[in-house]
Design brief:
Blueprint: E1 18-21, H1 37-50, E2 54-59, H2 64-74, E3 81-87, H3 90-98, E4 103-109, H4 112-118, H5 123-139, E5 143-149, H6 156-168, E6 173-178, H7 185-196, E7 201-205, H8 212-221, E8 226-229, H9 243-254, H10 264-275, E9 292-293, H11 296-304, E10 322-323, H12 331-340, H13 347-362, H14 369-380, E11 388-396, E12 403-410, E13 413-420, H15 424-436, E14 443-451, E15 460-468, E16 471-479, H16 482-501
Parallel strand pairs: 1-2, 1-8, 2-3, 3-4, 4-5, 5-6, 6-7, 7-8, 9-10
Antiparallel strand pairs: 11-12, 12-13, 14-15, 15-16
The structure holds 3-methyl-2-oxobutanoic acid (KIV).
3-methyl-2-oxobutanoic acid is lined by residues 26, 107, 147, 149, 177, 179, 204, 206.
């Protein structure tokens, strides 16, 4: 939202605003990111499910592999318009045409730094070239957006001329690009207002100053009706404005619908998996902590009223609320967590458990379900026999096929099994599943590894969350050996899930 408010700088709820996703082009330009054709297809399908209007599938000029990937996306025959990025040259438009795209983004320089310093042309020649390229693309029945690169650092009068030339030559729209994410909402508003007087305008904002969403909203308030964004905010340097953030901001603050919001979390995870770029836990909408409450005050408030510490329900974006345990946990949070695991405890016991949870948190530890349950057993004196225990583990990865064998105690009986897998952890997990048979019918919901210390002798912490029916248990184990840490964590989680099956749930209103 613009910092300086005036009545015309708002966004009316009856505005039609559409989203252009450039995860497959600008997102893929993030350092270290490269998507296979199959991954592009999977992401494009998810973008279509979410209801994105335009999918920029790549840059046809990059090479044969990229063209094959773009063609795979155009072959999907999606409702969304599928486009390619093109530099300001006819050859690029031809390559895009080879991929059978619906449209192109013709990127031409807008600032003098780009006109003279990068492309080595003049303002006038740039205008002439742009008009020719637009006419060429229109002659080939393409939808055309002209992007004035580095537009936020361009002379505004020249930017207007560039937009006017593009639109007069037949372009469907002109895009205001804050290429290096350097500007603020006031300038964005002024520039886009002037461009919107000439014809349809899009906004392409980067997040170098953390102003990506602010500038996108300023552009919309000034008349832009198409916002370029990327899933998870991936993109060059600090990234582009995040699709999920623009969509929720428009929905929550301005009541303007752009997407099926329930799809955004799935989308975020698909992109994180494909790109290998982890979702930061504190990221709005999609971060692990976005709907997690730990502190006593917040947990207590949330248990009294869901909305107490949340701007909108997590289900809006396909997520669930989570109460975490840690240094700041209070009694209400502990009681709720114990109830979730079917553990009964009186008020004094809850107070003692809360104190011990806080102490564990004070030591810098994330407190998992397994930690809570172990503390609760100690405090309530409700010792139990383990259902499953790991007695022995060996794993080898030197040969052609990684192999592992395990010896488990299952309900007091010893079982031995072996397994193979893609690596020693995978092999050991197969061996555990083999030994447990149908008792291992729990799903591994998440698996995280953190090196706690540096160096090749690092201690690693493996945290797993396993789910069986509607119960989930998180366990963390630290060891120097990653295979042992993984298997111990998994066996402990299975043990907790199986033990939970053997005890009745406490009444909900206890
Ligand atoms: C080249 C253009 C489209 C771009 O990505 C930008 O300006 O950030």
């Amino acid at each position: 939202m613009p910092v300086t408010h005036s009545p015309e700088q708002t966004i009316a709820s009856d505005r039609t605003v559409r989203l252009l996703d450039t995860t497959l082009r600008d997102g893929e330009q993030a350092p270290g990111v490269s998507l296979s054709p199959d991954e592009k297809v999977e992401i494009a399908r998810s973008l279509e499910r979410a209801g994105v209007s335009v999918i920029e599938a790549g840059s046809a000029c990059t090479g044969a592999g990229e063209r094959q990937a773009i063609s795979r996306v155009t072959d999907l025959d999606l409702d969304a318009r599928v486009t390619s990025f093109c530099r300001g040259m006819k050859g690029d438009i031809d390559l895009a045409l080879d991929c059978d795209v619906d449209g192109v983004h013709i990127v031409v320089p807008a600032s003098d730094r780009h006109v003279e310093g990068k492309v080595g042309t003049s303002r006038e020649d740039n205008l002439e070239n742009t008009a020719e390229l637009v006419a060429y693309a229109k002659d080939h029945d393409l939808w055309v957006e002209v992007i004035g690169e580095d537009g936020s650092r361009a002379d505004l009068d020249y930017l207007e001329r560039l937009a006017e030339t593009s639109l007069e030559a037949g372009a469907d729209r002109f895009c205001f690009a804050d290429t290096v994410g350097h500007t603020g909402p006031e300038h964005t508003h002024e520039a886009v207002s002037r461009l919107a007087d000439l014809g349809p305008v899009s906004a392409h904002t980067h997040d170098d100053l953390g102003l990506g969403v602010t500038n996108a909203l300023a552009a919309v308030s000034a008349g832009a009706d198409l916002v370029h964004c990327t899933v998870d905010g991936l993109g060059e340097r600090a990234g582009n404005v995040a699709l999920e953030e623009v969509a929720i901001a428009l929905d929550h603050v301005y009541d303007v619908e752009t997407l099926d919001l329930e799809e955004v979390y799935d989308l975020a995870q698909i992109v994180a998996r494909a790109t290998g770029v982890q979702l930061p836990p504190n990221k709005a909408v999609i971060g692990e902590n976005a709907f997690t409450h730990e502190s006593g005050i917040h947990t207590d408030g949330t248990l009294k009223d869901d909305k107490m510490y949340e701007p909108y329900a997590p289900e809006t974006v396909g997520r669930e609320r989570r109460l975490a345990l840690g240094k700041h946990t209070g009694r209400a949070g502990v009681r709720a967590a114990l109830e979730e695991h079917g553990v009964e405890a009186d008020d004094d016991e809850v107070a003692e458990i809360a104190t011990r949870v806080t102490e564990l948190g004070d030591r810098g530890r994330r407190v998992t379900d397994a930690d809570l349950l172990a503390i609760a057993e100690d405090v309530t004196g409700d010792d139990r026999d383990r259902v499953v225990d790991l007695l022995d583990l060996s794993a080898t990865s030197g040969g052609a096929v990684p192999t592992a064998s395990v010896r488990l105690s299952v309900d007091g009986e010893e079982r031995v099994a072996s397994g193979t897998g893609s690596g020693p952890v995978d092999a050991a997990v197969s061996a555990v599943r083999e030994a447990l048979g149908s008792m291992a019918d729990a799903e591994l919901e998440s698996y995280h590894v953190d090196a706690v210390t540096g160096g090749t002798d690092a201690v690693v912490t493996v945290e797993v969350t396993m789910v069986r029916d509607d119960r989930s248990v998180t366990v963390a184990r630290s060891e120097a050996d990653i295979t042992r840490a993984s298997v111990t964590a998994m066996v402990d989680a299975l043990d907790r899930l199986l033990a939970a099956d053997q005890q009745p749930l406490a009444p909900a209103d206890d």
